[in-house]
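Bug #2210: token dump truncated for Replication initiator?
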Amino acid sequence: MLTLEDRITARVKAVDFRAWRDRVTAIGGCAAPIRLSGAFQLQDLHGGLIEHIGGDVMVPCGNRRESVCPACSDRYAADAYHLMHAGLAGGSKGVPADVSEKPRVFATLTAPSFGPVHNRPIATTGKVRPCTGCGEWHHGDDPRIGGAVDPGTYDYTGSVLWQAHAGKLWHRFTIALRRKLAGAAGLKVSEFKDHARLSYAKVAEYQRRGLVHFHAVVRVDGPDGPHDPTPTWATAELLGDCIKAAARAVRIDTTRPDGSALRLLWGEQVDTKGIRGSQVENESGEISEARLAGYVAKYATKGTGAKDTADRPIRSQLDIDILQISEHHRRMVQTAWDLGGLADFEELNLRKWAHMLGFRGHFLTKSKHYSTTFRAIREERRTFRKLEMFERLELDPAAVVVVNDWQYAGSGYDNDAERELAAGIAERVRAQRLRKYERETAA
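Reproduced locally. Full output below:
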């Protein structure tokens, strides 16, 4: 029986290997590419055929999670970085350069406690402290970290319902924040839009306990957006104070399966930091634009922070039974699945989101005027590649029409040897990109 090494060797020696390798390299070593079969034609403006190119192609899967596809996760993180950085520093993506002079704050809104969990507190000196839940010293890779100290008393129902309403909590927070800012400026709430506009971009980050925190860049613009001067009464200090007050004011009242009341709130810890344009943090704790954009991009591709996360939708109870995940996460998945089967929680669609531990929102969202969009960034990339093709074929883009005709032919690779080779290609592409980045930043 051939070993994996034998199968890899055979694939490398195959006649079509170089062509296959070039196709995989072109998609960055995607772990689960979509295979398409068909053709595209280049026609002149009168419908005359200029070029016909057909066959099988691979396109990236586009999954943002690093645990599913490191290559596509890298691309998503890069797009997230540019989206965030444009709204912080300006000067690109249609955002004016003076946007960095506007009042802005980096805020973190947390989930409340639903029971003691195992943790690994670290003192400011770097010394690891004993777990506040059980008193033991946990290793950094201890699978118990984040799990309930006493699963029998941990409020799994409350935690899943909080997670399912997290997006709604954020929406109500933005409404409350506008009200707090208007009140601080001596304005009626209805008058706020005539004087200022709240712009933000937020990302959800899973904690080891399976609940999300929201990290957000919040900015105060003029009434017409970033191109409009911000009113003089708006300051970063005022914005930070209003963020904390707004978070304390938000609540959602719902019920548990037994009909008892459940009030959903933000956690007590609401953190705000100033943002400055330099490349390093200063003694006041302010964070630089570039580093902050990098943090947010990293948050956007994380799972729960554990190594045993369910990465795909749950289709049946059998899927839950065979999941190789921690017991804490399994109970959250099970709770979401069970609640999803009850008529009272049908609108939450929890079975669809059981693998996300009940979280139903997007991982990175922004207000309309914060900066550019993922769609615009991806369209820029497609346009760039199309122009590269026209230049290679010595064609005038204005005189050419592209006609595509592609059909789905499958997903992933044919065998484990191809998957291993693709993973190696992905590592090489990533290493090349990092070396290029290091050279550019050192210059």
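Output looks complete on our side. The chain has a mean pLDDT of 89. Marking as cannot-reproduce; reopen if the truncation happens again.
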